[in-house]
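cache lookup: miss for this entity combination. No prior model stored, computing from scratch. Input as submitted by user K.M.:
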Amino acid sequence: MTDYGHDLMFGTFVTPNAGAVDLAVTADRAGLDLVTFQDHPYQPAFLDTWTLMAYAAARTERIRISGNVLNLPLRPPAVLARAAASLDVLSGGRIELGLGAGAFPDGVAAMGGRKLTPAQGIAALSEAIPIIRDLWNTGTRERVDHRGEFYQVSGAKRGPAPAHDIGIWIGAYKPKMLALTGRLGDGWLPSLSYLPNGAASLTDLNARIDEAATDAGREPSSVRRLLNLMDGAEPEQLADLALTYGISGFILATDDAATTERLAAEIAPAVRDLVKRERG
Amino acid sequence: MSTEQKVREAETAPGPVVLTDEDGGLDPWTAAVWLAARNDNLRITLPGAPAAVSSDMADKAMDTLTALAGPRVSTGDNPSRFDDLPASLVKFEPGDPGYRGRSSTYMRGGRPALILRPRTPDEVAEALAFARRHPELQLGLRSGGHGISGRSTNNGGLIIDVGAMNDIEMLGNGLVRVGPGATWKQVAAFLDKYDLALGSGDYGGVGVGGLATAGGIGFLSREQGLTIDRLRAVELVLADGTQVRASAEENQDLFWAVRGAGANFGVATAFEFEAEEVTEVGWAQFVLVSHDVAESLKAYGDVAREAPRDTTVFWLTGPPRQGQSVIQMYGMVDSGDADTIIERLTPFATTALLAQQQVVVARYADVMAQAGDVGPEGHHGRGEPVARSGFLPELTDAFARDVAELLRSGQVFFFQLRHMGGAIADVPAHATALAHRTPEFSVTAIGADRRGMDEVWDRLMAKHFDGLYLSFETDQRPERLHDAFPAATLARLRELKRRYDPTTLFRDNFAIVEES
């Protein structure tokens, strides 16, 4: 039994095409906490996810917005840090940064990004996160310098500062990525259907994150556990995920307005009730 | 004023806003997208292209905003590379909104330095004057962006995109006037209101200009002739900028040349076709399974050869899987009568084991309308297509055996026969620049590997063919010009090329060059 005690968040995972803005507005009006978009720019039918996020943020009022997850090899950290902080400022603190090491290396290369091996992708991500955090930190006037294997930043001015502490949520499955998530992440954002044994895998994967967090001198609870649900969601299932596996962010894949509304109006309150009852 | 204050003011401002890039300030691209979403009428100037890892990513961002908000954002300091661009012409350079969707084609990736999009024949002439001033830029012509043989995109060159010239107008007596940028799907939908139709190819998304200057082997060709056989007049802008009209009455040489080799002679700005009455048609799609693809192909050939002119069925397969070939047939019977349709199609459906069938009575326009619309993002082909073509005089046993071997080679993932004969063969060889009038089939194969494909094609297929359909041939070896045009046709084309395009301005699609 693991419960990291976070407030529960409910959101949707929306295909980044022409209908996505309307679905974000639907989710916002319905009262969901979060709307997220996958990031596969090499897929011609998809819109550019960052542009879509900024557009959706401007068309919504309360909902938080994140990539799910953004493709780091196509989104250099200095560009991403500035863009995310800017949108966080404009949206009144509604942006979270779902980030991944980048799948589909051939697709990445076709769009002019660097083709990295999985190991290189992890190394690049562990360079990128400190750069992003540095650029967001305007508490000092010191310029940002970073001489890494994958990214070089020389004498960059910091800022803008985000309007709130933007969470960096990492899409991770394998041991090295899970360790990175425990060490550097504010959140973990996998998809249930990609877990080897479904929800049962979460115990072991959580433990790896917890261990890496502890090793880095952090509380395991400093990493929020979110989960993409690609095949529907029912209240008892989600409550069990929250109470048994410590999941506090439920992101349902849907491009359907009625399903979005039902998540907000029926499923989320039911799960909150069940969890509240158990947590006491 | 901070960049944030500026954005806040612009959220409700009536007038345009010019965003700047300040150290430590807001990201101009994110601010521009935010503003475009918040203020529906605001025009926004950016200090530069969106910050991105690559120009492809920056273009994708710009195109996404154009798709979401319309073309309201421009980059102020993205000056044209060219200082002699005609001011009136619509242009797209890398980084311009809309560039990315027009830089690639249906099957080919490209990154031209400049795309000009003329809206009138005068603007075509201006674009051609620009092309003459810039011989260093490879010139390509683009209508619908489906060209396989024609380089309707390139890397670093100039594309004249006639997609905006897409008017369709009824002239009466079955005559329809069509711009080169219309698609065949649009033409079909327009003619449908008059119970008329005009054969094109097999895909409604294809543009008029490229097809109507090359041939057009489609579902009505056996009854109506090729698309070029329905052409009654064409208006062109020649290499020197002259605007001419060609028909059986005037500029007869050009009229002859445009029908089969049009890409060599000018930019067509309008076509006048004679359509024919077509109301309901039978439309069939079959999936068959065969353990002996050579035998099934032969059986198809026997049926197709005997079919009446109202019946046209194309044959398509790919590499066999576990010794089994999946064959798709799709075609049309120009009749709305169910019994006639079934009678015509049954022999085709029994050439192998029928696995799926769909036969409907439909309008010709409905069949064309199955093609997807090209959205604001345009085409996104990548790389270079590897396609070969041949006109097959007779589908023999030896051909069928060699096709089976070709398919087993794994080099070909798409292998198609288009059913010819009928009215196509009524036109004498010398009447148009497309001289190959008597094949039974037009054969097209698409592969992935240039050398592997050419090796199997040259070894197994070439001996069966007499000529090729130039639109589907991507082999650049000089012999192909002789396959496209028999000697007498080529001699006449060369003479006309010397007269109408002496500097070989038009050379991106089967360039008619002198004997080397």
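stored under new cache key. The longest helix of chain B spans residues 55-69.
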